[in-house]
Task: structure prediction
Amino acid sequence: MIVTDHILKAFDADLQDLRRRISEMGGIAEKMLVDGITALVRKDTALAQSVIAADGRLDILQREVEEHAILMIARRQPLAVDLRETISVIRVSGDVERIGDLAKNIAKRAHAISGQFQPQKVVAGLEHMSDLAMGQLKDVLDAYAERDDAKALDVWRRDGQIDALYTSLFRELLTYMMEDPRNISFCTHLLFVAKNVERIGDHTTNVAETIHYLVTGETLTLERPKNDGSSYAVVEENV
Amino acid sequence: MIVTDHILKAFDADLQDLRRRISEMGGIAEKMLVDGITALVRKDTALAQSVIAADGRLDILQREVEEHAILMIARRQPLAVDLRETISVIRVSGDVERIGDLAKNIAKRAHAISGQFQPQKVVAGLEHMSDLAMGQLKDVLDAYAERDDAKALDVWRRDGQIDALYTSLFRELLTYMMEDPRNISFCTHLLFVAKNVERIGDHTTNVAETIHYLVTGETLTLERPKNDGSSYAVVEENV
Result:
């Protein structure tokens, strides 16, 4: 019994350590997203460079968390909620790491468009979209830390807003490009930035699904509330 | 000893089963990529629809493979190469599933541009790029089936070609857009298609890295041969 107790405590301590590292990863990813968008809007290439540099730490943390979690499964044979905890660690760290990749790509594009004019209206649309994604990211990381299924489901439901905003921004950017060929180069980069933010939203939704599985033991089988029609979007030229 | 033998055989049988399912997943992803590009080039919306429909099967297979592999780790506590085998199954199935997602997105865009003119030159560039990605995918799936580290490393090295092609296609598409605003809508979709193919290349590189880890027990620490400069690309207008 004492041995069992010891094993349980060792498992819990390991899990605590992994969750601390995921919390560190979440903090890095949040900062990368905010700084990436700020670098883009303010054409701040030094800030963009710091976002690009931060991604390395995130990759290392993710690899460590994954390896450690798999060793825990192999060594301690967790069952039920302990197994779900360990699997969730692997999944959440994977999503947070990819959010970092996407933020890094946004920062790279800050370099490309730093010399170019950016119409205030599309930039505002992009900022609005990234504020929503940032809110999703913060809330889903809180929901994970607090094992709060209701909060996770709320994030999951809200992702449709980001998708809808992306589709309207997609059309707007295309219209801008048609109005003046000088807009094409930076609008193209902004299209990819918007797509990256939309994908960050998708990853927060993945995390929400993982939390639901962790807390309830069940997989969310509902269709996601998708409003991204941009892949189907056709914009006619303005003439 | 008989019991140990029995456990080993049960583990091997489970692993065989998982590898069969990954092989099935690989076949589906290959077909989705070929059909997705064909649907786009021939403006075949029925074929595009079949690609979109095929993705569901891939998602289910991936989820099953992942769950099964984690249960194997928990129940049988595999060590050394057996543990690497099981981890590799999880990673490879994740990459193949995402290749399917990207092919599905290509197929969706076939709908959007089906009514629009496509200049032969950019379509040829896109086909060339997807032929390379298709070659990478076939080779890396073979390398996985045959545990062939040399073949995997060859795929890993070749990915730079796809990235270089993507960067040149990116510039070409932007130039087209600047020449005539009527090109903007479909060129934008082709930009995203090209990006998707480039990302498919990245996932084949991930699989190659997994194979290297599986066969040698070591993680590839070299920098990837990246030639994707498109995030930094600035194209001046043609006037």
Summary: Residues 30 and 134 of chain A are 7 Å apart (CA to CA). Chain A touches chain B at residues 63, 70, 73-75, 77-79, 83, 87, 94, 105, 108-109, 111-113, 115-116, 174, 177-178, 181-182, 184-185, 188-189, 191-192, 195, 219, 231-239 (CB under 8 Å). The first helix of chain A runs from residue 2 to 42.
